[in-house]
Here is the input.
Amino acid sequence: MITVSKIERRYKLSSNEFIKNYVDRGKPVIISGVIPSWNSFSQWSLKYFKQLSPSLNIYAKRFSDKGIEICSLTMEKYIGLIEAYEADFLNNPSPPYCHDLPLFSLIPSLIKDAQPFPLDYLPEWYWYKWWRYCQFFLGCSNSITPLHFDCLLTNNIFFQIVGRKQFTILLPEDAKYCYRKGWRWFLVNPENPDFNKYPEYKNARPIKFIINPGDILYMPPGTLHHVRSLDMSISFNIDWHTTKSCLNALAASVKGMPIQNSYYNFLLAMGLVFKIPSQLIFKFYKSYLNYVS
Ligand SMILES: O=C(O)CCC(=O)C(=O)O
Ligand SMILES: [Fe+2]
Here is the structure.
């Protein structure tokens, strides 16, 4: 088991090193120097998305103690809410958070803006139409994603394009100090922990850092993360398994993982372990991209 108290930052990490030193060791890392050559880095903004697809129907979420509330609205309406909030946050309501949106599939012209994509960080199985596995996060400053881990126990490569985000992460072995609720959510607020209610959290070793526009963050399977947008922000991630993480995730089926999640992991195992091409698997996997849990 590896203990980390601080996250490493590496410039243009080679895929060999990425896999050997970080993926295989379950160690998070921030990678700089990849995104700044992409068109998206200079071109993407909420205005740009609005111009491309004003009438696109999207959904946004509100997280609360009661669960996740989802609202549906057009891109134009949503960006309008964010612009109004950023211009005058005292007199405008805080907009919901557009969270986990498969925007490359909805606006395919965005794909060319994320090139050259570091495909060699991923197993070859994902290379064909890699962008289908990506999920976007668009939101105003102070949008928050509460503490959780990614529900299929996948690896996560997170691409920060516009704005900064503050992450507080905890390695999987600290989950036991964070007061789990259901499969993937946790009750502790790492930004302001209530030690009276959650005394075990004193044993946890949170790692807090900011990712800047142009940074890539790698989080190993089961990493707990709480995320605050410090600015209006555009990010996307790709959730992916290695053969090893996929088999570990399937084993978690007997440790409380919901059956629906095990179904998606089974599909990925068919691809990664039994080499069934993604062209055949994706039509069954696709619903995962709209799966809220
Ligand atoms: O950026 C965020 O607010 C949340 C990101 C996240 O949870 C993820 O990439 O899995
Ligand atoms: Fe997440």
About this structure: The longest strand covers residues 57-64.
